Amino acid sequence: MSNAFACIRRNPPVDKTLQPFLVHGLKGIEKESLRVAREGTISLSPHPVQLGAALTHPNITTDYSEALLELITPAMPRESEMIDFLAHLHKYVCANISDEMILAASMPVGDLRDSAIPIAKYGSSNVGKMKHIYRQGLSYRYGRCMQVIAGIHFNYSLPEPFWPQYQHFMKHTGDLKSFTTNAYMGMIRNLQRYGWLIQYLFGSSPAVSQSFMDSRNSIHSNTFEKFDETTFYKPYATSLRMSEVGYVNPVQAMFNISFNSLDEYIGDLSRATSIPYLGYERIGAKVGERYRQLNTNFLQIENEYYTSVRPKQLTRPKERPLQALRRRGIQYIEIRSLDIDIFEPTGISIETARFLEAFSLFCLFQQSPCQDLKQNEEIKNNALSVANNGREPSLELLNAGRKISLKNWALMLCQEMQEICEVLDNGDNDKPYTMALHKQIEAIRHPELTPSARMLSVMRSQKMSVTELVLQKSHEYTCQFKHAALDASIKRDFDRQVSASLENYRRLNAKREISFDQYLSNYFAENTAASKTHTKDHSQTIPGSTAGTATR
């Protein structure tokens, strides 16, 4: 399929022939959550063996830290099943973490010095060593505090039977994989353009603790106000997690990753994982016999690149994410800009999941022109404006260079989502998707209904610091899950998964392998070749690069 189709698509109505194929797309959640002590300090204890082995368990693992749980639901056609599964995982975890709690917020509290944040360990196998060293590299590059900021990833794919129907409707005669991949890339570009709406509606981090500000040592600290002696905030902030003190990183801002086609995305990301960066060369990759990071490139591996939405394809053994995308195209999209909702026990409500599904479909059917550097900058600035000041009544954003009030733009987008929601309601008299949309329209009209505003309101009315509120909710939800009965058959299934993961972990560690140096060399070899394959004729210098020039 030509890039022209990927960049400029028609904007068809939701044709009646397509509507039956839009219902019951697959949804999944990946939720990060810190294990903390009662006083809020991050747990220094290893990942509990009662939860299985983090390296080999399909649903309960760790992210950056040994204390940073990641709970993963399967991809499910019904959002109610997905939310229920997430609740089951919380019940099982809370029953197996002794007197610790699951932190109910995205932004960490307590002691946030590097020494108080243990890096996750995955055993002595080569794959386990690589995962640990990668995280060690993140520590050198960004500091550990940033890496324990938690969030929720929402994964979505349309039903497989939809794609041939849509291809026929669009009168496209090429191969189905290319058509599907380019349509998903168009959806992703629109999720980036309009992604500020997710931050406005679901941002739940308008304030941070003194310890967070001290650990981040941010040059932006003078833009914050003091809420009380131990809390910094911005009065109209929605998601400081997505701001300059959160995931925004100046080194990654030095290079541009194109989403105009999957080939460009793969090529740009391959180069970012292949070009050395002087600042990271000063750290060193292997000093003596000890690795500090996997390499000294802008990105150690492609997963290091932070973006609000990613194209995804399930990987096979010994396969890298970019290889999987190159070989089989896009299987689903991953929305990564969701804060943990402090007012929801599992961190996300079923209404939020329904809105995100409808929003993703809306983004599929909208025109999706290619993005240049100027438009990318506009998208970035809109996102930062909403993260820092999204509830400011007079806030204006830029839409193709023209100023528009956030409120008016948000209401227009939601109005255009109405038809999608009616399709997804699928004849249900309760109109669950339409009701989820109306709830968010109310939050646009009345910003005090957003989680970020509610959070500050509770802190004011109850004279609480952000740490006190977070710990109160963490204790409430952990107790709720500890005392909630888990269905016996579900518990048996989780117990079997724990046993299987521990056995698989033992086998991996006992297996005879090549040296780690050789393993790492083999792992990166194909990526180097792929990067050369995707090199373009037009080159530009990446600041800080020691490789001279780099394309794009």
How would you concisely characterize the structure shown here?
By secondary structure, the chain is of the alpha+beta class. 44% of the residues lie in helices and 12% in strands.
* CATH architecture assignment name of one domain: 2-Layer Sandwich
Low-confidence stretches: 1-11, 534-541, 547-552
Sheet with the most strands, sense and barrel status: 7 strands, antiparallel
What is the 3D shape? globular
Please give the radius of gyration in angstroms. 23 Å
The share of residues in extended strands comes to: 5-15%
On the 0-100 scale, what is the average pLDDT? 92
Number of helices: 20
Separation of termini?
22 Å
What is the top-level CATH class of one domain?
A: Alpha Beta
Count every beta strand, where a strand is a DSSP E run of 2 or more residues: 16
What is the CATH fold-level name of one domain? Creatine Kinase, Chain A, domain 2
Fraction of residues in H or I helices: 40-55%
Derived structural class? alpha+beta
Which short descriptors sum up this protein?
single chain, 552 residues, alpha+beta, 7-stranded antiparallel beta sheet, 3-stranded antiparallel beta sheet, disordered N terminus
Descriptive account of the structure:
The chain has 20 helices and 16 strands. Strand 13 and strand 14 (402-405) form a beta hairpin. Helix 2 packs across helix 18, helix 12 (350-365) packs across helix 16 (432-445) and helix 15 packs antiparallel against helix 16. It has a domain at 3-249 and 306-375 and 447-513: Creatine Kinase, Chain A, domain 2 (2-Layer Sandwich). The relative contact order is 0.16. The model is unreliable at 1-11, 534-541 and 547-552 (pLDDT under 50). The chain is α+β, with helices and mostly antiparallel strands.
